[in-house]
Amino acid sequence: MCDDQFTRSYWYAVARIEDLPEGRPRATKLLDVDIDLLRTQGQATATTRPSDGQAIHLPTKEQYGHVWTTLSESPRDLYAMPEFEEPGRRLVTAGAITVSCSGLRVVENFLDMAHFPFVHTGILGEEPHTDVAAYDVELREDVDEVWATKCEFYQPKAAAAAEGGQLTRYMYRVAQPFSTVLYKTCPIREGAWDLIGLFIQPKTQTECDVHSFVLVFDDSNSDNALLQFQQMIFMQDRMILENQVPSLLPLDPRLELPTRADASSIAYRRWLKAHGQTYGVLPQA
Amino acid sequence: MRLSYGFVRGNRLTCLYHGWGYDGDGACVSIPAHPTLTPPKTIKVARYACVEAAGLVWVAAEGANDPLRAPDGRWLPAQTIDLDLTLADARAAVAAAAVEAQAADSAYAGSGIETSDDSPLVTFVDARSGSRVLCALQAVADDRTALHVLVDASAGDVKAMQRAYAEWGRRIRRNQGRASLPAFVPPAGTVAPTSYLA
Amino acid sequence: MKLYDYVLSSDCYKVRLLAGCLGIELQTIPVNVFPGEEHRSPEFLAVSPLGKIPVLSDGGVVLQDAHAILVYLAKRQGDAGAAWYPDADAASCAAVQQWLTFATELDGTIGAARQHSMLGKPLDVDRARSGAREQITALDDHLTDREFDGSAWIVGNSPTIADVAVFAQVAVAGDGAIDLTPYKAVGRWLKTMVSVPGFSPMPGISAIR
Predict the structure, then answer these.
(1) Segment C9-28 mean pLDDT
(2) Contacting residues of C for A234, CB less than 8 Å apart
(3) What is the pTM of this model?
(4) ipTM of the predicted structure?
């Protein structure tokens, strides 16, 4: 049972829209609650499946290629990504991949550039280009989000559409405790950002389903090539994430020593702490 | 992330995740994300005393400060066998199997099985060849024990001994949990216990 | 040569791995197996009636099975591939077949555990994992015996398609939460495979040294 009100106040993606067709119910879990998903008369529905007592109908919405639900009676607005309305972009949804660790660890790993040369060798990074240059981090109080901007990293093959190495510019956005989006310089369109995001569905404190998407301008790669690139990168991360000890995220800064490269992670952990995050967090000694 | 997933480069143990390099004292000596930075001395991983002896790598348990008392001589590995047994049950199973190996040739009446209740080692003499066998038990978890089987490098046909005692170890693995293990009474003249874990 | 490929499939990886070691350039055509299940689509069944990946298409030859493709690639390279598929010797050729079957059986254990752990496929995962451990134990015993023979490989004295087929399953056992640390000879063999010229990893395998 999750009594973390901050965590409960958000919407969570629980399935891709096309994976919930009429007449094919799905069972899943969100924040330790068993949930049945069903589409009837075109409408996605989510119902809790309590071991005793009454089933509760949860609100649903369909956005960004996914079905979303929430355990809150007055949830926060789902965050805005106007890029989904831009013509010419391609959306690829990569399906849910299960990871045995806190979903907060998944977000933190996503924010980290220093691991690129070692975990995504030859793709998102390569020795000797290991230097993480200083970048800006801010808490955007109007929307209650953490952003890291002016990030730069040398990448041998930054995207499915990239030819050869390049200095890639990044912005990272933590829009929810369990959801994060990367804005990356588009290799083929001057001034545009490509989006890659994770909608993490925490099933328990130490297991999550990671729904991911790619929203890009790309004239040369098939949807399947974009999908394979995304799944390849994520599976490289998954091996690391499943071996994290402990699998819960520690908020005590003495437990995992940060360096300057971890400025985004420091800000993320502080933000979680300020909101009293307990779900998926290592209890303080 | 465990350092054992990492790699050794230039005598540095390197973490797979971010490439942080650690020297033999456990001190972090390089952080690739900040190539010009000298890592602060506070970044250190726990270090355990470690010795190579008798064909094995030995690590001192936390707080142990007795000197290592490894068996003399040169030893060659047969096989490491994973047993779903507690250390005590594994020791009993190994000792019981050693009785069998000793009895294979009734003409042999040499030295016996050496172990004790708190020793991670069992040594005995193979009846057929008359050469020694070393079993080092490593408690991997409460109910799991790794059995390292080694043979005396000076044995006549050492290859045959390695093969025979790899197979002997596999038999212990196959028999584990099959029936209640026979009780083992250590014979007289057991080796001194050590506080080291293999 | 065209390979209908899926990045998370051990069977597809077998083909990419051997092609790399033999220096064969493959044109890969990604198939959306997860989440799209495109391998069940009429369009894909027109290419491969068996509905399986990988599929190799080379001129008029279409092969719908990973191990058949391994044999084909090794034989097609003539002398350069002969060591990878030692079919001149009856015993070696049969031993390779035996371990290819072993690799197929790993799909029902390691492969099943991966499908469950990664993609949530409902199945008896404890049974899959304990079956995997029994098989990996047998492999560890075999590789130990091979070391006594003076060889680091499953068959003969150099890597064969048997090593490729078994490696592609065992090396990603961790994806299915199967711990490989107890199997010391397997661990040495995995490291040796990574250093074979032309080696390429799949996600879940670290090749950095």
Answers:
(1) 98
(2) 203
(3) 0.93
(4) 0.95
